[in-house]
Design goal:
single chain, alpha+beta, 3-stranded antiparallel beta sheet, two-stranded antiparallel sheet, 7 helices
Length: 172
């Protein structure tokens, strides 16, 4: 059985989890939970999202998203507005206070990532970003049906990594 600590998928997942954990620790002093900052971030990117759209973006049930929105409304961070052409649809927007909080959260996020990448030189950071963006593009294309199962059916190509590993495993 392969060592999962050397499998690239596990390493990417671990790095993402560790960044989230450190970020959570840093934003705790603002009195905000992970669920709340996720909602604020999604609404900052997409102001006026409906409850359903927000639930989909966060990968939660509509009722769960509704409860999150209720808490944020109570805190004065978001407001619901009725859609003009369909009064059944409620759109959600950040308040000015939430925009200020989001700016603070963004600075904390940047500081957290900078701390995580501290051992990488500028060119290494750029290379890492370029590679991750290529992976993301491949996965998004497959998810959007553009590849029609391309990831599942394509032969597995593994180029050796600079460390002498294949897909995170020791090269033969």
């Amino acid at each position: 059985m392969p060592n999962t600590d050397e499998y690239i998928g596990v390493v990417i997942s671990d790095v993402a989890r560790l960044l989230r954990t450190e970020f959570d620790r840093r934003v705790r002093r603002l009195g905000i939970t992970r669920a709340q900052w996720l909602v604020l971030t999604r609404l900052h990117r997409r102001p006026g999202a409906s409850h359903s759209e927000l639930a989909e973006m966060m990968e939660v049930e509509k009722a769960t998203a509704g409860r999150m929105i209720d808490r944020l409304v109570a805190n004065g961070w978001v407001e619901r507005r009725t859609q003009a052409d369909d009064r059944r649809v409620k759109r959600v927007y950040l308040t000015k206070e939430a925009e200020r909080v989001h700016k603070r959260i963004w600075r904390i996020a940047e500081d957290t990532v900078d701390a995580g990448l501290a051992d990488l030189a500028g060119p290494e950071r750029k290379q890492l970003m370029a590679l991750l963006q290529r992976i993301k593009k491949t996965l998004v294309s497959a998810d959007n049906g553009e590849g029609e199962g391309e990831l599942a059916t394509a032969p597995r190509k593994r180029a050796p990594m600079a460390t002498g590993r294949l897909n995170g495993r020791v090269a033969p």
